[in-house]
Amino acid sequence: MVVFTQSDAYVLVRSMVDYPWVSVSGFGAHIKSTRKHLIIQKKTSTEQYPLEDISHLLVVGGHTIHSATISQLVRNGVYITFFDSDGTPVGTIRPFSADNGEESSEHQRSLPRQRYAIRIAQASIKSRLFAIERIQESRQSSLFYEGELDLLHKSLDELEYLIKLDEIRRLHKLSSDMYYEILSRSLPPELGFRRRTLRPQADPVNAMLSFGYAMLFGNCTVAVIGALLNPDVGLLHEGKGGLVYDLIEPLKAGTVDPIVLNMAGGSLTDSDFELTNDRCMLSDTLISAMIKSFYAANISDRVNEQVYNFSRALVTGTDFKILY
């Protein structure tokens, strides 16, 4: 299960400096309003946001909000979306005259899908090459077998000339599989991590990666909905959450992977996980440590920026600046 808070009911409120949405995560916040401001009261602080600057309030987890506040927000044209604590959308309250999101969906469907898919796949390869380079610098030794680095660079160049989405996805998967196999050489072999596997995971590294990516997915889903985008209209990826998978793919190697590699290569002990016949279960202590590291690294800020860059590109027709 993806968790957005620790046991002390930590509450995170997004800044309005860059993004037209406010996200309240965790448990125990009191959400109020005046005629001109949204007010978020937490244990030790109170923050105010001008209503004229807000397009979307995102309520993640358990908080209190008065019906008068809901009415005030909706009258000011603000959407309100409620999420479970794992970032799963529950429902949205829209201003009476607002559309149901079809306009954004149509904008997304009208994008040159092949061009965007190539850009996302290229950014993913670049991010993984940088990640491997950082590991090699810290180890002062190479992780590549003969020909692997050339093959990854060749894949990066080849993407530019592919036409069919199936070809782009095939090359993206090939490079991703190679990346995880190369990463495995930097970790203790007794952990049993050889490559990326689907659920249920049988080793602690795969289990940690899955948990970290699930946190990344949940955070991105909240931001995507906050930007009034359709999370299911993807470019490189298809199906439910397609756009979310697109936007987090280039971020994985620079956000979640360093946390997992640092823990797996150093402080991980037998008490941090339990191996059964068919799966690996992470301990509550390890999960809490991962959550703490996730938020200490301000990963949510990078997710918000990625979503905001895509949203602006969609609205203005400018180039999508992909973070990785």
TrEMBL record:
One function term, GO molecular function aspect: DNA binding
This protein's source sits in the domain of life called Archaea
Question: In Gene Ontology terms, what is a biological process of this protein?
Answer: maintenance of CRISPR repeat elements
* Cofactor(s) needed by this chain: Mg(2+); Mn(2+)
- Enzyme Commission code(s) on record: 3.1.-.-
Q: Which InterPro entries match?
A: Cas1, CRISPR-assoc_Cas1, CRISPR-assoc_Cas1_C, CRISPR-assoc_Cas1_N
Alphabetical keyword list: Antiviral defense, DNA-binding, Endonuclease, Hydrolase, Magnesium, Manganese, Metal-binding, Nuclease
- Chain positions recorded as Mn(2+) binding sites: 237, 249
Family classification: Belongs to the CRISPR-associated endonuclease Cas1 family.
Quaternary structure (record): Homodimer, forms a heterotetramer with a Cas2 homodimer.
Summary of the function given for this chain in its UniProt record: CRISPR (clustered regularly interspaced short palindromic repeat), is an adaptive immune system that provides protection against mobile genetic elements (viruses, transposable elements and conjugative plasmids). CRISPR clusters contain spacers, sequences complementary to antecedent mobile elements, and target invading nucleic acids. CRISPR clusters are transcribed and processed into CRISPR RNA (crRNA). Acts as a dsDNA endonuclease. Involved in the integration of spacer DNA into the CRISPR cassette.
What is the designated name of this protein? CRISPR-associated endonuclease Cas1
